[in-house]
Write a structure and sequence with these properties.
The chain is α/β, with parallel strands linked by helices. The protein contains 8 helices and 7 strands. 40% of the residues lie in helices and 17% in strands. Strands 3-2-4-1-5-6-7 form a 7-stranded parallel β-sheet, sandwiched between helices.
């Protein structure tokens, strides 16, 4: 007997799903789990960072370089979200990183319950930094709190400098914008000044860092920023 496929949701009669209410309930449930994760990270003094971007902006390469530079100083764990394959987690493991792949099976973003299930199967004892490399998408991930301390949006010089105004929610909900592939700036029609202005128009408090995981430009500043945030998190745990 062959496999029986469930009917696609698009075949349902119109009006059978209250989309607005469903979305609201989904986000409320997500936020409840996110707060549970945030408390767990605080109790353990773990700095949690949600890395978001469109596909191909260099998230995995940045994670590789971060592991190379900081693995002897900090215990780093990385959750990697993708629709299919474990290729990105494998790349991080190749440089000595502790990575676990979350395969969403077609879902275009990570949700807090996915993170909760993943960390339940991880040994977080002694972890200093937990990175979450989100699914490549500048739209859906903006709506889902994962319990992170900081959301960082990568925008690569190969994408164009118009993204902050085109996808404002992502930049509004991020604490930092990282301009990646900065080594290509001399060869591309990308204005660092314009993208910074647009990002700060959307979110006046956003920090901006330009770096290249290929040339190493800006990576010292990136590592210094992480070190500062780790210290702040461990200090907060000590006084709580």
């Amino acid at each position: 007997m062959g496999n029986v496929k469930a009917p696609k949701s698009s075949r349902n009669s119109r009006g059978t799903v209250a989309c607005d209410n469903t979305t609201m309930h989904l986000l409320q449930a997500n936020d409840f789990v996110a707060e549970t994760i945030r408390k767990r990270m605080a109790d353990n003094g773990i700095l949690m960072i949600n890395i978001v971007s469109s596909a191909g902006s260099g998230k995995t390469t940045l994670m590789q370089e971060t592991v190379k530079r900081l693995k002897d100083k900090y215990n780093i764990a990385i959750l990697v979200g993708d629709l299919e394959t474990e290729r990105d987690a494998d790349r991080i493991k190749e440089v000595g990183g502790n990575a676990l792949q979350i395969v969403t099976g077609g879902i275009c973003h990570l949700e807090a319950q996915m993170i909760w299930q993943a960390i339940e199967g991880m040994n977080l004892e002694g972890v200093d930094i937990l990175f979450v490399e989100n699914v490549g998408n500048l739209v859906c991930p903006a709506s889902f709190d994962l319990g992170e301390d900081y959301r960082i949006t990568l925008i690569s010089t190969t994408e164009g400098d118009d993204k902050p105004k085109k996808y404002p929610k992502m930049f509004l909900t991020s604490e930092m914008m990282v301009v990646s592939k900065a080594d290509l700036l001399p060869y591309l029609p990308f204005s660092l000044e314009l993208v910074t202005k647009d990002a700060m128009d959307v979110n006046p408090d956003i920090e901006v860092l330009s770096l290249s995981s290929t040339s190493g430009e800006g990576l010292d500043e990136w590592c210094e920023w992480l070190a500062t945030k780790v210290k702040e998190k461990t200090t907060a745990k000590a006084v709580s």
